[in-house]
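tokens incoming
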């Protein structure tokens, strides 16, 4: 149950950009959520914007008071000079709701060709004939650049945050604190 929240603000830094610090923060959060037996923490971005494309400078974690307390602060080690964190607070009664989800795009024709070559034993020319450059889709959504804990590969995690609605929807959250269907409080 998402009854409480805490908010982490990224402080201005002359050496590191806000997006770079947000990437680091999300990497640390992901590792912390992977180590939890169950994901009972969700996230949202109060400064989220599509134009200009940005996740903003604040990360809001939602969960029960117990889940947020269990997550603790140890995952924030190394970020103390770059962030300011609130305590755990109850969600305001006037909150509306939004969905914060991951969006994946088949954005690279080269990647799709390599995958086809591997799966079907085709040559590059055969794969290129079947997968033209026109299949590439460019996303205009804000994203974080992360490194996968399972594969070690760096990737862009595109995030879509919906408009606010009055009704909450139940569902599960993944190891990034995102959900395809569940809503988080928005205030």
């Amino acid at each position: 149950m998402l009854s409480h929240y805490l908010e982490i603000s990224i402080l201005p830094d002359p050496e590191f950009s806000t997006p770079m610090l947000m990437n680091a923060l999300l990497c640390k959060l992901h590792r912390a959520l992977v180590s939890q037996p169950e994901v009972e923490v969700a996230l949202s971005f109060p400064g989220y914007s599509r134009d200009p494309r940005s996740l903003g400078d604040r990360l809001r974690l939602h969960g029960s008071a117990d889940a947020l307390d269990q997550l603790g602060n140890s995952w924030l080690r190394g970020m103390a000079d770059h962030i300011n964190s609130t305590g755990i607070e109850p969600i305001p009664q006037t909150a509306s709701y939004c969905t914060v989800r991951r969006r994946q795009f088949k954005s690279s024709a080269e990647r799709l060709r390599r995958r086809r070559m591997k799966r079907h034993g085709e040559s590059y020319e055969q794969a290129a004939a079947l997968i033209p450059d026109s299949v590439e889709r460019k996303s205009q959504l804000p994203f974080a650049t992360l490194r996968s804990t399972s594969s070690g590969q760096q990737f862009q995690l595109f995030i879509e945050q919906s408009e606010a609605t009055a009704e909450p929807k139940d569902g599960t959250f993944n190891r990034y604190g995102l959900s395809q269907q569940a809503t988080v409080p928005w205030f």
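note: Residues 18-34 form the longest helix (17 residues).
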